[in-house]
Amino acid sequence: MRIGLTGGIGSGKSTVAAMFVRLGATLIDTDAIARAISLPGGAAMPAIESAFGADVLDAAGGLDRARMREIVFADADAKRRLEGILHPLIAIETERQASVAAGTPIVFDVPLLVESKRWRRIVDRVLVVDTSEATQLARVVARSGWAPDAVQAVIAQQAPRSERRAAADAVIFNDGVNLEALAGDVRSLWTRWAGIPTT
Length: 199
Description:
Helices cover about 55% and strands about 10% of the residues. It has helices at about 15-25, 30-35, 45-50, 65-75, 75-100, 115, 135-145, 150-155, 160-165, 180-195; strands spanning about 1-5, 25-30, 105-110, 125-130, 170-175. A five-stranded parallel sheet has the order 2-3-1-4-5, sandwiched between helices. Helix 1 (about 15-25) packs across helix 10. The chain is globular and about 50 Å long.
């Protein structure tokens, strides 16, 4: 069983992913892979430096994520060029990790699952964690210290909530619910999709 997990920034997707792991799933986090390949010496760094110059490097030679975020939010072509570098490398590492995890249910945590289109062919089920934009904004400001307009810029770059919900096989609405209720929703899906009862 391959489950594609997605949701907007601040939706609680990582919390849901951790709950699946506790139930026995293997988690493959594409955002973590993207960070790893853009660290100093990472597989993406030569191509990123070639495409964007030394201005996007941090002091250690990795990607200056804040600077890159500014660039791609202001320039759609720059966003496409960055994705053209990162996405093939992420796909390779994703499949490598999936091959190691063969035999256990896999949860792919993919922030841009709906936007990328390719994931529908790769996963058996798509789960969307959904929450209101106001809640997204409040959560991200509280945890990251970003200015509200920076969070709004990220939300604007992501697929609309309606588009994510339309692509889903199931939706968990994570707004105003406690962790116990959220865990109950996750257990129910796990039993139904993976065929593994929970205690």
